[in-house]
Amino acid sequence: MGSSQSFERLTLPANTTSPVSLAFDKDDEGPYVITSDGLVVKHAPNIGFLKMATFKFQRGNKTKQGLTDACERPRGMAFNNLGNKIYFADAYDGLFVVRFNSLKKREVPRLAIHLATSVKGVPLGFLSGLDVDPKTGMLYLTDATSVYGLRIQKYWLKGPKANIAETIYFGHRVAHPIHIRRTKSGQFWVATNPNLFKNVTVPTAVLIDSSGSFVLKKVSLDDQYNQSSVSEVQEALGTRYVGSFGVNYIGAFNM
């Protein structure tokens, strides 16, 4: 994401904005994204966005299809490639899934299925992200909090530190991190927005090493996003894709 790299806008369907979270299937096709009107769409080269599924959100006692505001949209999505499923984490309504028979041929758009608002009796909080273990299909959820501040943690799943969480970055080193996405080489892209609450943010992509010990690079995205906050950076097939809260396109940087 520098001056030597080309930039393309993948424009969303009309009257939709805020591609907050992105996902790619097992063949790295996509990106898939949920739009501001409750559609799950997939980008196809030379075609544009194809409708794959739709949502019905339960807000209080009323069911509302699409037409969500910025806070009423799934903030995280990830594929379970063991079963052709996409999971979605919604801040208010919990966990959803869309199941596909095939990702290689067009199907009638599916309706997202609501799975849960709690786990073992514990309510799911203000869900902000999720990921799926590609080997086991295990699902991991994260929720937003105002208690612990702007930090990045590493949670050990196995080994001598199993079930231990370590804080590896605080806000003064990686300012206002949003989503974290792993690259095929094991490094991590973090979408950050320094000075987010001062209305002068410079959206920045931060690359950290596989151990979480070092910041490898920081890349300003201000030329492409003009102070609109970014939410996610992902790599697929030689392209880096950027999600955002406030624009009507996905940014694609040819590496």
Question: What is the mean pLDDT?
Answer: 86
The CATH topology is: Neuraminidase
CATH homologous superfamily?
A: TolB, C-terminal domain
**Strand portion:** over 45%
User: In CATH terms, what is the architecture?
Assistant: 6 Propeller
Q: Note poorly predicted spans.
A: 60-71
Which shape, going by the Cα principal axes?
globular
By oligomeric state, this entry counts as single chain
In percent, how helical is the residue content?
under 10%
Would you kindly provide a written description of the structure presented here, covering whatever features stand out?
The protein is built from one helix and 25 strands. By secondary structure, the protein is mostly beta strands. The chain has a single domain (6-254), classed as TolB, C-terminal domain (Neuraminidase). The protein starts with 5 loop residues before the first strand and ends with a strand. β9 (85-90) and β10 form a beta hairpin. The strands form eight sheets. A five-stranded mixed sheet has the order 2-3-4-5-11, with no helix packed on it. Strands 1-25-24-23 form a four-stranded antiparallel sheet, with no helix packed on it. InterPro entries: 6-blade_b-propeller_TolB-like (IPR011042). GO terms for molecular function: hydrolase activity. This is Strictosidine synthase conserved region domain-containing protein. One of its GO terms (cellular component) is endomembrane system.
